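Postdoc handover notes: sequence design on the structure in folder B. Input tokens:
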């Protein structure tokens, strides 16, 4: 099948206008485009310029009109609340049009921003689709982020309305969201006029008169309203993701290119069509949730599962398999971490014995590097193709993958396979020269990026150019390093920047360092991602204390962990920290994070010639060894 795959890829590169015009036939347009690809403002490219459509119409209404009204659109499965129910396309249309009516009634208009800070409940999807219906730009903030992170995003997006809920449910218990929201609003410099709050039965939230409205009350009198026609190039959403500084990047996605690319990917990559069941076990707060819990499956008229629970402990490592069997899931998508967690709790796959997984055709993994052990365990136990694929918040859909709905190719462990049509992936050295097969380098994508990828960073075009386009002219810098083998298979090995990947969650070490430095006792901090058997990576902090600090080490560590949890959120999973006398630096003052990471993970490293004080590396190695890393014998 490799030839068929290669031909399709070649056609997408030689004639992108034709390729994407064909793909766009799966979408209903209000009016057609002037040009498929407008490159007149390169490096800012505009797909389907001049066309009009509505993403919500394509994801909801048109399926009702086509006779799918009675089909389940969203199957909600919540083991943590013991609740399961399906929402049909007709019910989804009713909910979304009414919520859009509520937004419209309080003055939310096209182009206004709406922040969504909610747990994994169907109302979160209604909220996103309602924004899309009226052309408001949503920005979903992951529930595991703390008030301060929410405030940062509120200040940047400047929403007119925030939708939130009284609580989320985590295995550790009920997490009250409303106090976090109140705290964020108190911190934010931007004033938010309206909040719509979903009160869940597990916890009642107190409402602030004049600002907060109870969800049911707001919906009770709201009119149903129709979809508005939007420009293909109008923004659909902003999704903040970690950059190398503490200030997150607001990735902007458009309407037209996004709908076309996601619909194309559902069929060609995930092998999903109308009527099929698809499950992406992620969270709507991440890009996987945006693309493959909400928009992708709904755009093609499939049934999407929305799961409020974990792979293990809710209640056991068989939860995923039972859910797949019960809801006839054809393609399943999760992160390698989830498989590692299941493998740890059920190494022999005993929970698989009592389920019939004949409905399941493919398992897709992404979000972090998939180590071959995890891949082989899943293949061995599930007896299904297990497909690693690589992408990022910025791209919005897969960059390298095995096209399971078009022309599957051989699976090679450790590789997300080949470039997806539309993406020209190259591996280059620091000078921008392509490296030979099997040689490592920076992974870049030749411009223009295909439809559905980021169009810019929210109100910060300069940062978009500086972060992604300025290092190699004519190329998008992915921030990942890796290589291609002799067959053109890509291998993504690491990041080239200070981003770490904790349980598939992308976090900035720069942000950790900022927070640690807020502590009165800390003069300087360095945070690195160290290897972790379950989560792939976990953050490890080394701090230099101010002169004269006499705080007990255990007490200091407890305070630092508490501070990170309070400022970034529980998702940071910050449990490793120690004081050191000095950090290793170059003579120009750059902290040698990469060298420290290699020491911690027992990898080869060179002592840079520019090191200020070589003894600092010994100090760090001893500390890391004491913390259970950096095996002293290597
Ligand atoms: N709202 C509030 N808190 C949240 C949250 C949310 N939406 N999501 C996570 N948290 C909290 C968790 O309760 C936990 O808090 P704790 O320190 O009090 O226990 C913390 O954030 C870390 O959560 P998580 O990353 O889920 O780790 P875990 O140790 O609870 O579970 C796994 C480990 C492997 C089971 C879990 O990480 C997992 O399911 N990973 C799948 C990865 C994934 O879906 N990635 C998305 C990208 S594809
Ligand atoms: P996010 O933007 O949160 O989706 O994170 C994207 C980053 O996660 C990528 O840039 C990679 O560093 C990493 N990543 C995602 N999928 C894979 C994969 N299949 N293999 C290796 N790394 C991956």
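Designed sequence:
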């Amino acid at each position: 099948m490799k030839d068929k795959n290669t031909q399709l890829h070649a056609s997408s590169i030689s004639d992108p206008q034709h390729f994407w015009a064909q793909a766009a036939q799966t979408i209903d347009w209000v009016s057609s485009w002037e040009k498929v690809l407008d490159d007149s403002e390169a490096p800012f490219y505009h797909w389907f310029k001049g066309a009009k459509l509505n993403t919500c119409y394509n994801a909801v209404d048109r399926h009702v009109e086509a006779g799918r009204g009675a089909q389940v659109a969203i199957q909600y499965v919540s083991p943590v609340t013991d609740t399961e129910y399906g929402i049909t396309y007709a019910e989804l249309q009713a909910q979304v049009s009414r919520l859009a009516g509520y937004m419209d009634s309080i003055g939310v208009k096209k182009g206004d921003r709406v922040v969504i800070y909610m747990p994994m409940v169907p109302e979160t999807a209604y909220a996103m689709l309602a924004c899309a219906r009226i052309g408001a730009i949503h920005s979903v903030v992951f529930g595991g982020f703390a008030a301060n992170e929410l405030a940062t995003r509120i200040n940047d997006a400047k929403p007119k309305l925030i939708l939130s809920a009284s609580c989320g449910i985590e295995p550790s218990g009920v997490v009250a969201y409303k106090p976090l929201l109140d705290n964020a609003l108190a911190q934010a410099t931007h004033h938010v006029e309206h909040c719509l709050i979903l009160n869940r039965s597990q916890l009642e939230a107190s409402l602030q008169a004049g600002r907060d409205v109870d969800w049911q009350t707001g919906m009770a009198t709201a009119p149903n309203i129709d979809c508005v026609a939007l420009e293909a190039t109008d923004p659909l959403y902003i999704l903040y993701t970690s950059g190398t500084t503490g200030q997150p990047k607001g990735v902007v996605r458009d309407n037209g290119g996004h709908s076309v690319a996601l619909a194309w990917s559902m069929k060609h990559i995930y092998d999903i069509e109308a009527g099929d069941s698809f499950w992406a076990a992620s969270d709507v707060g991440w890009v996987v949730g945006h693309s493959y819990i909400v928009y992708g499956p709904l755009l093609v008229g499939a049934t999407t599962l929305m799961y409020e629970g974990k792979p293990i402990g809710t209640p056991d490592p068989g939860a995923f398999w039972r859910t797949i069997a019960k809801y006839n899931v054809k393609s399943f998508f999760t992160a390698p971490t989830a498989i590692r967690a299941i493998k740890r709790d059920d190494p022999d796959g005993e929970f698989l014995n009592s389920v019939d997984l004949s409905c399941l055709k493919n398992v897709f993994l992404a979000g972090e590097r998939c180590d071959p052990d995890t891949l082989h365990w899943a293949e061995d136990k599930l007896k299904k193709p297990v497909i690693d694929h690589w992408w990022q918040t910025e791209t919005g859909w897969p960059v390298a993958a095995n096209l399971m709905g078009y022309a599957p190719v051989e699976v090679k462990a450790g590789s997300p396979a080949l470039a997806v049509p539309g993406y020209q992936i190259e591996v280059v050295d620091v000078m921008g020269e392509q490296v030979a097969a099997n040689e490592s380098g920076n992974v870049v994508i030749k411009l223009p990026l295909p439809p559905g990828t980021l169009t810019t960073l929210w109100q910060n075009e300069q940062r978009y150019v500086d972060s992604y386009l300025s290092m190699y002219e004519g190329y998008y810098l992915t921030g990942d390093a890796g290589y291609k083998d002799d067959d053109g298979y890509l291998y993504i090995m690491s990041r080239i920047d200070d981003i770490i990947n904790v349980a598939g969650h992308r976090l900035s070490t720069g942000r950790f360092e900022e927070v640690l430095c807020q502590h009165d006792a800390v003069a300087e901090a360095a945070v690195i991602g160290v290897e972790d058997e379950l989560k792939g990576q976990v953050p490890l902090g080394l701090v230099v204390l101010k002169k004269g600090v006499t705080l007990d080490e255990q007490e200091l560590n407890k305070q630092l962990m508490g501070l990170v949890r309070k400022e970034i959120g529980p998702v940071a999973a910050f449990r490793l920290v120690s004081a050191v006398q000095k950090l290793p630096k170059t003579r120009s003052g750059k902290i040698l994070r990469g060298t420290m990471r290699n020491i911690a993970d027992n990898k080869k490293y060179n002592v840079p010639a520019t090191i200020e004080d070589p003894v600092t590396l010994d100090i760090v190695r001893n500390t890391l060894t004491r913390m259970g890393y950096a095996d002293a014998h290597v």
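Context for whoever picks this up: The mean pLDDT is 96. Don't rerun without checking with the PI first.
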